[in-house]
Q: What sequence folds into this?
């Protein structure tokens, strides 16, 4: 990765942490709007914002874990409209499991 690609990559990571934090906070206060707003940042919008040059450098196994993680944020956006808080928390837990699984495997060198 180039220096600027790495900076953007890590900045998106920090955004995902803020996102999932906002989702958990929203679940705790049963604030559906807050959950939706927090989750939206890290869904398809972020996936699409990844530059092609960076995308081309990511290994297949990385993308196989990364893409579904963005999709889980989209799922939270949709489920936050109507689902029980416990069900939304379960999807958030799946997303967090992906964070942990990827961090155990990859470094941004
Ligand atoms: C597909 C792989 C992958 C997934 C999924 C993933 N990460 Fe990361 N993340 C990385 C890599 C690689 C690094 C860089 C680690 C390093 O080189 O030290 C990183 C770094 C980070 C950092 C540190 C950023 C910095 O400024 O140094 C944070 C915070 C982070 N991730 C949060 C998350 C959260 C929250 C999730 C889940 C919602 C998540 N990540 C999901 C691969 C992933």
A:
């Amino acid at each position: 990765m180039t220096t600027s690609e790495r900076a953007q990559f890590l900045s998106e990571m920090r955004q995902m942490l803020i996102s999932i934090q906002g989702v958990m906070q929203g679940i705790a206060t049963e604030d559906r709007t807050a959950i939706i707003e927090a989750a939206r940042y890290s869904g398809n919008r972020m996936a699409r914002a990844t530059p092609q040059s960076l995308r081309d450098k990511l290994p297949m196994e990385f993308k196989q874990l990364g893409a579904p993680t963005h999709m889980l944020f989209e799922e939270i956006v949709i489920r936050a409209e109507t689902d029980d808080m416990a069900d939304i928390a379960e999807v958030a837990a799946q997303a967090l499991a992906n964070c942990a699984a990827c961090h155990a495997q990859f470094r941004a060198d």
